Amino acid sequence: MKINVIGLGQMGGNMALTLHKAGFEVTGIDTFSDARERLSSQGLTVATPDTLPEADVYLLSLPTSVQVREVIEQTPNLLEKARTGSIIVDTSTSDPSISRELAEKVEAAGLHWLDAPVSGGPKGAATGRLGMLLGGHEDTIKRLEPVLSALSAKATHVGGPGSGHVVKLANNYLCAAHLLTTAEAVALAAKAGVDPAACLAGLNSGSGRSAVSEVNFPEWILSERFDSGFTMGLMRKDLRLARDAAAHMQLPDGLLNAVVDAWHADPDNPQDTDDFNAITQAWMVLSETSTSRQ
C-alpha cells in the first residue's frame, strides 16, 4: 500500500515514520524544505506538493480546515491528481461542516473519505499509540485497517463523514475544561494545606479523575516541563471551532462559551506558542504560594 503523508509537522512527520517502519511505502509531502530535510535524514522518501506521486492513501496532517481545503481543491489538487478509488484521510482537527462538504466533493470525484482526528501527541504518533476518531463509511475503514492498526492503540468509528471531527471537538472542549477545573480544585486544596500531588492522588482515586488529572498534571504541569507538543494556539482554535459548531446547531448556552472565554482572556499569557497545559499556571502559582505558607 502506497501512502502519501501531507504535512510533516510533529504529528504528520511522526506518523509518516511510524508507517514507514511498519513496512508501508511512504512519501512525506511538505511545502517547507526544512521539514522535508528533517524527515529525509531519518530515511523517509520526501517530495514537494507539485511533485506529488500517486498513492493508495493520502493522509493529511495540517493545521486547519483552510489548509485541508487548499490541498483538496486548489490546483494542483488531490481531486485532479488522485486516482479513482484512492482514500483521503484527514487526521487534522477540522471544522466538521467543511469536512462534510469536502467529503461530498471527494466522493463525487470517485475517491473515498475518512476523517480521523488523533490524540496522543507526538509521542503517540511516533510509537503507533494514537487514539483515532473515525468519521466515514465502514468499507473505507475496513480497507484502511492495516494503516489504522499501525498508527493507533484505539480507533473508534463514531459515524459518517464529519463525525470524527465533531467528537474530536467535543473531546478537546472537555480537556480544556478539565484543565481549568482541575487546576482550580488543586489550588483550593492547596489553600487548605494539602500538597498538590497528594490532592491529585485523591482525585484520581475518585469520580473527579480525568485524563488531565491522571496524565497532564504529573507529566507536564507538576513537573513544569510543559512540552506536550500541543500548543495554546491550537487548543484555542479547536475551542472556537467547537463554539461555532454549537452555535450553528443552535444549542442552548452552556459552559462552552465560558470555557472559550477563559482560554482567550489574555492572548499573551500564555501565548499561542506556549504549551497548552500552561493555561493552569496562574492557579498553580496560587497552589505553590498556599502550600509554602503552611
UniProtKB/TrEMBL annotation:
The active site is at 168. GO terms for molecular function: NAD binding; NADP binding; oxidoreductase activity, acting on the CH-OH group of donors, NAD or NADP as acceptor. The keyword Oxidoreductase applies. This is 3-hydroxyisobutyrate dehydrogenase. Residues 162-281 form the 3-hydroxyisobutyrate dehydrogenase-like NAD-binding domain. Residues 2-159 form the 6-phosphogluconate dehydrogenase NADP-binding domain. InterPro entries: 6-PGluconate_DH-like_C_sf, 6PGD_dom2, 6PGDH_NADP-bd, HIBADH-like_NADP-bd, HIBADH-related, NAD(P)-bd_dom_sf. Pfam families: NAD_binding_11 (PF14833), NAD_binding_2 (PF03446). Keywords: NAD, Oxidoreductase. It comes from the Bacteria. It comes from Terasakiispira papahanaumokuakeensis.
